[in-house]
Each structure stands twice: as C-alpha cells, then as structure tokens.
Amino acid sequence: MSVEALDRIAIPAGLAVAPALPDVLPPVKLRRGFVGFVRRHPTVAIGGGLVLFLIAMALLAPYLATVDPTALAPARRTRAPSPDYWFGTDMLGRDIYSRVVYGARVSLLVGFSVALLSSVIGLAIGLVSGFVRWADGVIMRVMDGLMSIPPILLAVALMALTRGSVQNVITAITVAEIPRVSRLVRGVVLSLREQPYVDAAVAAGTRTPAIILRHILPNTLAPMTVQATYICAGAMIIEAILSFIGAGTPPTIPSWGNIMAEGRALWQVKPFIIFFPALFLSVTVLAVNLLGDGLRDALDPRMAKEY
Known about the structure:
307 residues; mainly alpha; MetI-like fold
C-alpha cells in the first residue's frame, strides 16, 4: 500500500504510521537486449565477431580469392607481397592470399566437426559412466588409457594407418579428444546425481534413461558448450601440426599447415610465406578461445555481473 493511500485512511487514536524508509541503495539498472549483452560480455562479442568474419571468408572464398589457389606459375614464384599478389607467391608461384582464404575452409571444418563429434560422443559416454555405477570402472579405465597418450601422438599414429584426407584428420583428432570430454562430463554427472531432485526422481520410480535425459543432461550442456570451443581451437592447432609434418591433409588441398610446411625451407629469406597463414591461424584460435571465455562467464551464474 502506498503512502498516499495511507494518508487517506483514518488512523485510530493512539496509533501512528511509520515514515517511509529512505532509499539506501540505488536502483538496479539492468541492460537488456543485444547491446546490454555485449556490454556485459565483450569477449563474446569480439570472439564471436571474429569467428563470424572467418566463417564468411571461408564461405565466400571463391569470390574473395583472386586466382585459383592450386594454379602453378613457376615464372612468378617467391614474389614478395605487392598490389598484384597481396600476400606474395610460394615456391611454385601459387598465390598465397588465395591459398590462405581457401585454407580457412579446412581449419574451420576440422575444428567445428571435431568439436561437434567429440562433444556428442563424449557426452554420451560421460553420462553413462557418471550415472551407471557398474559401467563407470570399465569405461573410465579405457578413457584413462587413451588419455595417457598425448593427443598429437595419438592423431599421428591413427593417421599413419590411413591415407591423408580431411575426413581421416577429423576422425583421428576426434578419437584423441573424446576421453577428455567424457572425463569432464563424468565429473559433472557425479556431482549432479547426489542432488535432492535426482534422489526424488529415483524414489518416484523414474527410469534411469528418463532421469538422465530430464535431470542430468540439461545441466551438463553449459560446461559442454564452453569445452567445445576449446576443443575446436585445439583441433585447428593439431590439424595444422599434422599438415605441417606431412601427416594431415594432402598437399593438393590448401590448408594453413600445408602452406607453412611448404615455406619452412625459405623462412629466413622469404618469411611472408609462413607469416600470413600463421597469422590467420593465430587469430582464429584466439577468436575461438575468446568466445569460449565469454561463454563461460555468461553461462556461469557465479561469474555473472550486473551493471
């Protein structure tokens, strides 16, 4: 009831109305909408903007590239950056700018595919391992065995058994990343299954698959989303390493790792051959990591900030 309404009410004798309390704290101003979200989480805006720019560059590669990235021109080899060749040419006379633009397709495809596949498979394994106690020991021992091998070595070993292709690179890196995802999800599930609402669902006779899908799975999506961004960035680096050492994508497919591998012999005299693909790889990994850090802050209520 407002103060004006109290003034219009007849107050019995012997009673008094307490004065209104002053506003000690300033009113909370919530910034809503897109602008408010950007101000609260600038890293999401910066990282997301860079990622969208790189995705657009990869999709529009046929229109942004100046020439065919695989076209050979020995007469114009190792030319320095110029208005005709923005990033210069490599040892075979191929335009580095066009190859870098097309190379974004390989890196983004590998990163997003590995993040999606490893997240889905690792999520399923982690849910079963964390909630089904009898399966936990067997599954986690297998995952521990895979985690004992460094991801790059495991990927190299798997690539040695197959021929070089983008699909095989995605498969090899995915196998190396699944144990880490399943370990993360398992830890989250172990803490969630002790919550009162899970005990209530068990006491009510709810089946295990229903408990996992209704009560456990939704609470694992936030940390998994953040983890997927880090997996994406790591997969891009591993793909570049595999291509750099000749165990990744074939030389006929332009990728940032292949471009750097072809220019390493001329690094001291023609550094631009390696500089531009390395720069784009670094910016891409930085953008994905910024996006992951921003999502972590946005999805974690303990780190939320009100302005």
